[in-house]
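step: validate -> pass
step: tokenize input -> pass
step: predict -> running
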Amino acid sequence: MDIFKVIKEPHITEKGTIQKELNNQMVFKVHPKANKVEIRRAVETLFSAKVLDVKTVNMKGKKRRLGRSVGKRSDWKKAIVKLAPGEKIEFFEGM
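step: predict -> pass
step: emit ->
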């Protein structure tokens, strides 16, 4: 899979910010069919940072209502990437 299609966007939340500060972990939304090896390769290539560990979670979309109609948000995949000590991604600095 193309490395530019593996990582969709960073997932910035309060919990993700705490993980970044305490454990040097970054959270990304990734392609649903991407595996851990592809995610590791994409992060190391795009951000020039050494990756120690990758954990993935399949997130189920929530059911939402708008009046009488019921809908569902789409499912997505989350990757938690642990960087080596001293490594950081400049994209996240300042957030």
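step: describe -> Helices lie at 3-6, 14-23, 36-47.
step: cleanup -> pass
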